[in-house]
Specification:
Helices cover 69% and strands 0% of the residues. The chain is an all-alpha fold.
Amino acid sequence: MMQNYSESYIRIWKETFAFQPEFSRTYPESKKRIKEQKLDRFLKSIKSFGNSKEGFRFTEESKKLFLGNTRTFLRDGLDFTDDQLQLMFSNDLIAVSRAFVRQARAFDPQLSVNDIFQACRNMWIMNGLQVIMGLQIQLTPSILAYSLLYPYTDNLLDDPTISIFEKMIFSERFRQRLSGEYPKPETKTEQAVFRLVEMIEQQYSRNEFPEIFESLLAIHDAQTNSLKLLQPKHSIMEDETLHICLAKGGTSVLTDGYLVAGKLTAEQKYFLFGYGAYLQLLDDIQDVEDDYQSGLMTMFSSQAFRIPLDEKLNRTYWFGEEVMKTLDRFEGQHLELFKSLMRRSMDLFITEAVAQNPEAYSQSFVARFESCSPFHFSYIRKRKEQFRSYSGFLISAIEEIALTGEMQHVTA
């Protein structure tokens, strides 16, 4: 089944358009300057909540102010609509985010803020699937467990200080546990990972939901196979690289869907695989420089900084449009709203990726993308390190709010 999905989406990738996307918004110089001033004020407001000695201390009023500032910037600075923000800042989603941070901390107090945020990203994808499937937005044991698997397994597999041999040993033992065996954990990472698998087993019986555990094995095998991307340049063909990347992303979100719903229709499975493949391509675009430097050969990093990536980025955009067409096969609420939110988010995501790595694209391509950016590309690059600092403040503030009392609904 997975092989069929991969072949289908590889065919779509190859047949899709390669011309540059036409974004719905352009930003003249004067408007960019206004947007940059809004971002500067927003970042300053974030930092104002921090105290270098005592950390974050929020009253109920300051929590509302913090979330209100965030929502206002997303609307006025990044042009998300009120309807999109209503979905993003719903009471249910805020409550689930708060519960996730609290339970993740309880599971492992040593998890870093970045680890928790990484896990949250997957949880938010699963919450989005709950919306389009017409299910209640909630945090289940399986959503918590599967989302937390990412920082543990990804950090180990991406760690250059751990040998390929050690990674393969971990991979095999992890596979045994996913298959229903019970190897004794030999490291702290294995202990945590095996506990997370047990949490999924406690919610879903292996006998009643065999496809869930087949999908868990599929994503595991796809991740293990992705180690081939660490081989020397040109040691594998581009078609195989594409297959590995699409399979890794596709099986991941397909598993998200199974853990959200338990069982899936054929149409749902097809969309979820494609959606995950699209998200993986977007991640690879964003990480092109880091992947190139570390020797991870994705569809983008394998040719980056030698051949302009214009055509590949264009194909990714239109590939995503083809994937989103199949969203109509779902029966949940807010499908068009969810689709518009995804489009706006991905437009910004791709534009930022071009801004951060302009040398990977042709000059004319970069100039055209910059016209669709709310900010000058030079502004984005100049503040790259500053953004990292502020993002730390932002994530820490969200965590502090989540751990200290109820987060109230905020209206702009």
